[in-house]
From TrEMBL:
The chain crosses the membrane at residues 287-305, 317-338. One of its GO terms (cellular component) is mitochondrial inner membrane. It is found in: Mitochondrion inner membrane. Residues 191-268 form a coiled coil. This is Magnesium transporter. Belongs to the CorA metal ion transporter (MIT) (TC 1.A.35) family. Keywords: Coiled coil, Ion transport, Magnesium, Membrane, Mitochondrion, Mitochondrion inner membrane, Transit peptide, Transmembrane, Transmembrane helix, Transport.
Amino acid sequence: MSDTQEEIAKAAILEKVMKGRQLTDLMLRSYGGTGTILDHAGNIKSISGQFKRSDLCNEHRLNPRDLRKIDSRIPNLVPTILIRKGAVLINILHIRALVKADTVVLFDSYGSNDSRLHSVFLYHLEHNLKARGSGAPYEFRAIESILLSVLSALEAEMVFIRNLVGGLLAELEDDINHDKFKRLLHYSRRLVAFKNRAKLVQEALEEVLEQDDDLDAMYLTDKKNGVLRDMHEHEELEVLLEFFSKQVEEIANEAENIEANVQSTQEIVELILDSNRNALLALDLKVSIGTMGIGTGALIAGLFGMNLKSHMEEMPYAFMAMSTLSSAVALFVAWAGLRRLAQIRKVGLSNPKRGQDLEVRPRIPLPLRRRSSNGWS
């Protein structure tokens, strides 16, 4: 590809990215081609699938840049919880929602196709918003349903990965082959990606918990009704967020433990493969040493096969003697080589004989200072 073609390709990619960043519409979560909004009573209202960015900003008093985090056409890998003046924007895993004091708007999630998970979440959200007997504000019940769906999704994926990795580790105990080792590498990458997602969710919750201003601003119902609150009176919301934060932390810790087991298994498998490789190399060396011993014995026999007179042809025991000598030389050479190989292969953390080979040098005393007329020198 020439430089001109590369510049044209870069310009096309840049133009496509800029167009994606300048969208004017937002797509709501679709169930049968309609969007989803829940009112103050928890009832579902179906509306058209797209909204103008300007209409959403004017209706909910939001900034255009705030909508980027819940835009359905832009993939956001980092979970965020944005607290604004009259709304809370949540973008965590498969959920993108706008929570207000009397309304919940669900947006379509980028690349999400698990309709069962969405249906369960929507059912629980509707049921929780209609249950007013709990005494919790409307926005807290909505946030609880959202975080519960996120936690359920993480737990389900954790169980799935745990079963995959556990079954593969059990198979590796019986047999090690290339396919299983390749699957272990694939599962390890998937586990690391899941652990990172769980940690990002935990960091998003911890970030909100560390800001008293954000916690106070999340009391949307009290703010709408004009109820004055102390900035540090947010124990109810803090307990709610801490509960889910601890649950996500446990999932992340379990993922770390499984990752540690996978790494230990990989190291053990590598050690076993190295040991087998060393055993094959040792076998090859033993065969070579045996061949060298046989060759040494054959050298002696070859000296008498050159049809030269050695005056030993007429000796009655010459054949027996030379055969015995050749066999003895061959056995001795092979034994010496195998013994040396065994000494080289012997591995230890310390070698006590090494210190005995060092010569002990006598200490040479320093010359005494001599006294002169001017003093000691």
